[in-house]
Amino acid sequence: MKTARKIQLARLAYRAVRLGRTIVGRSDRCIVARDGLKYDLDLSQGVDFAIYFGDIFERSTRAALRRLVAPSALVLDIGANIGAHTLQLAKLVGSAGRVLAFEPTDFAFRKQARNLELNPELAQRVTAYHCFLAAEDEAPVPGAIYSSWPLTQGSERHAKHLGQEMPTLSAPARSIDSILREHGEAKVQLVKLDVDGFECEILRGATNLLRVCRPIFIMELAPYVLAERGTSLEELLSFFLPNGYRLYDEQHERPLPSTAAELENLIGDGESINVIARV
Known about the structure:
Layout: H1 3-23, E1 29-34, E2 37-42, H2 46-52, H3 59-68, E3 74-78, H4 84-93, E4 98-102, H5 106-117, H6 120-123, E5 126-129, E6 132-133, E7 144-148, E8 164-167, E9 173-174, H7 176-182, E10 190-193, H8 199-204, H9 207-213, E11 216-221, H10 223-228, H11 233-240, E12 246-249, H12 260-264, E13 273-278
Parallel strand pairs: 3-4, 3-10, 4-5, 6-9, 10-11
Antiparallel strand pairs: 1-2, 7-8, 11-13, 12-13
């Protein structure tokens, strides 16, 4: 299903929930517990509402993380947004594990920090980086990046996925390899990668990660947003296939085609699929 369609359906559900909450004197802001995790939510935001509304935010990805994350591991959450997967990863790695979470927009990073604050035991396992991951440290940083999916009407929304860009005013550029050197070249077991078209820019700065660590990747493939960033699915595959990776369906782990043309036949315009890449 296209992201735009998901947002449209969420808007309908949000209107009903908002009406009910208004009748009993409640606002869009609330603190809830889901699957043992606490969140400070704004129900007018798509990610927040999906957590509130039956904890349906990226269920398939959450299930894949539960299968694949090893206890005591070092894992990366790239495109952490408000920290929904960050908190789950912190649970999965346990007290001896570590999560490095990366979010470049001020809007989402503040929300992530608040959710970590609500889960202090898990927050101890997380190092949160407010930065834009790039090919090298000190690279140019885009002034704004999509990290908000409002459920209210408004202008300046993406034509296909209906997201809204948010500023990156205080986010420096870093590379993954540079950050991992600061952690003593620790071996990364898994990477969750969801960055709306910036994948290739990030992977250009992850040569050592791909060639030496070769972690499992759980990521979104969306050819239309790659094209918007001046890259392509073919370029994205060029970081993985030469390093011995193959792609698998996220839900059932069935093998997927290894060419861009065959993969694009599986993905409609304005759509995406979630995949696992592993050696």
